[in-house]
Amino acid sequence: MEESVLRYGTPEELEAKRIAEIKALSYLERLERLMAIIEVSYTLKKAKIIQSKKR
Q1: Is the C-alpha dihedral spanning 20, 24, 27, 32 positive or negative?
Q2: Residue 30's domain spans which residues?
Q3: Is residue 31 part of a domain?
Q4: Measuring CA to CA, how many Å separate 3 from each of 6, 11, 28?
Q5: 27/18 Cα distance (integer angstroms)
Q6: pLDDT at 50
Q7: How many domains does the chain have?
Q8: For residues 11 and 18, what is the distance between their CA atoms, to the nearest angstrom?
């Protein structure tokens, strides 16, 4: 497992670092990250619907 790294800097510097990190990824790695984001988003949306029905 990767060690956590704290990042300090201005928002512009952090954004530039994120963009450079993403550009360094392969197409497959980018796709995997996108699918993970979609899965988390769907799970959160589904959880909110279930929670609101219980009330």
Answers
A1: negative
A2: 26-55
A3: yes
A4: 10, 22, 22
A5: 16
A6: 73
A7: 1
A8: 10
CA distance 26 to 16: 18
Determine the pLDDT at residue 47: 86
Q: Is 53 part of a structural domain of the chain?
A: yes
Q: Which two tokens stand for residue 32?
A: 């995997």
Question: Does the model's pTM come out above 0.70?
Answer: no
The model's pLDDT over 1-55, given as tens digits with 9 standing for 90+, comes to 566 667 678 889 999 998 999 899 999 999 999 999 999 999 998 887 777 776 6
In which residue are the tokens 């670092």 written?
17
Q: Residue 55: its pLDDT value, please?
A: 63
Considering just the CA atoms, what is the radius of gyration of the chain in Å? 16
